[in-house]
Structure formats: structure tokens, C-alpha cells
Amino acid sequence: MKRKPLIAGNWKMFKAEAEAVLFAEELALRVGDVQDREILVCPPSVYIYPVLHALTNTPVMVGAQNVFWEDQGAFTGEVSAPMIRSLGARHAIIGHSERRQYFAETDETVNRRLMACLRSGLTPIVCVGESLQEREAGRTLDVVGSQLKAGLAHVKADDAPGLIIAYEPVWAIGTGRTATPGIAQEVHAFIRSTLTGIFGTGVSAAVRILYGGSVKPDNIDELMAQADIDGALVGGASLEVASFERIIRYKG
Ligand code: 13P
Questions:
Q1: What is the pTM of this model?
Q2: Strand (E) or helix (H) holding 191
Q3: Of the listed 38, 105, 130, 168, which one is catalytic?
């Protein structure tokens, strides 16, 4: 099955509003012709609206970095999936390792946020990945498998083809230490076979699996050449237009 590649930028907690809008305008000018791959930027939630506005009628989509699991209520400081969707955003990153590490995110809360996305028509990008300690202990596939099974609990097979999974080994995030294409492909193939076990072959062949962790202009081409790598979730290198453009225009 042919899966349309997706190159997504996770801006994390970076950029001021004017800079975010300028970046969006410049990116749209540079990649307006790209049709064979999808492009997404995920700014901090307070900039989703101005960035979306700057990207109207361009191929660049806008997503959130997180959503809360309830649709509304007395939850001071939280932002719900319907609120994000109503702005015009179409995607939300769920369960990023920084949220697991600093905000007590668990597989159960990942699952609740994921279900909130599906209820409101947002495409969830569900992040999984092992720590350095887990990799060195030979537990990578166990950890990723259980994050997937618990994170995707309750998802109906009908909804599953629309999911996006991001494999982000924690030891490769912001460290400059990318997983080799071979290491990434091994885990991506395992993720796809786990999805086959849960949802069947038709679904697993349709789900896109992104790689994230020190993706840069100089390693994107070989990562994208792997059979089960369907795109990238880019942190640092998505903050600068030229490097993000080069990643979007990977050769392959
Ligand atoms: P870096 O590309 O900065 O390593 O970040 C990866 C990431 O966490 C994307 O979500």
C-alpha cells in the first residue's frame, strides 16, 4: 500500500508570535508546490490560530502538541480537542516523551487523549519510544509494544487507519544522536506488525509511522528510504525554514 509521506514539525515551546507567523509565511512561499507529501507544523497552542491564518490556502497543515481528554469542564489551564479542532487544526501530537517525562503522562492518559482526538475529528500522532536505559537493557520492543497496546486500547478498527504513530527513541531526541536507519526500520517494522496483531493487515498497511529524534537535512534521505518509515516528526531542525524545507524536500 502506498502511504503518503508526512513531514511534521514540532516546535515545542519555541518562537514568539511574530516569528511564528513570519516562519509560516516564508515556509508557505517555499513549499507551496509540494504535492506528493504532506506538511504539518505544530506550534504552541496559543499560536495555532495566527499560524493557521498565515497558512490559509497553502498545503501546510497545522496541529497541536497536546490536548486534554475531556471535551469541556472545570479544568483550569487545559485546552480540549474540540477547541483545537474548532480553530481549524487537524492533528494533535499525543504522548510525546517530554510530556511523559515532565507532565506525568502515562499510557492511560495517552489513550484518553487519543480517544478525545478521535471524537472531535483530530488525527492523533501517537508517540512511543524507549529510553536509553531501556534500549541498553534490551527492552526496546517490549516497551514500544506495551506503549502501543495500552495507548491504542479501545480504538475501533474503523478509526485505526487514520492514526499516525511516531517512533521517537528518547535517547535520540535533542541529542544529535539519531537512530541509524537500520535501527529505526527495525522498530518501525515491529510497530507495523504489532498494529497487524491488533487491527489486521489492511489497517497496519495504511497507518503512517513517523520517525523522530535528531532528524536533520543530512540524515532525512536515508531515513526516508526505509520501507516502514513514512515520514518524520522533527524538533530542532523544524525551527529554521531552510532546514525544514530541505527535510520536506528529502530525496527519494
Ligand atoms: P529533535 O528533532 O530536536 O531531536 O526533537 C525530536 C522531537 O521530539 C520531535 O517531536
A1: 0.97
A2: helix 181-199
A3: 168
C-beta 212 within 6 A of ligand 1: yes
25 noted as active-site residue: no
154 is catalytic: no
Q: Does a structural domain hold residue 127?
A: yes
Say whether pLDDT at 203 is over 70: yes
Does 1 fall in a domain?
Answer: no
Tens of pLDDT, residue by residue over 204-245, are: 999 999 999 999 999 999 999 999 999 999 999 999 999 999
Q: Mean pLDDT in the chain?
A: 97
Count how many domains the chain has: 1
- H/E stretch holding 206 reads helix 201-206
Question: Measured from the CB, is residue 215 less than 6 Å from ligand 1?
Answer: yes
Q: Would you say 179 and 140 are in contact if contact means Cβ atoms under 8 Å apart?
A: no
Q: pLDDT tens for residues 72-88?
A: 999 999 999 999 999 99
| CATH (domain of 213) | 3.20.20.70
CA atoms within 13 A on the CB side of 11: 26
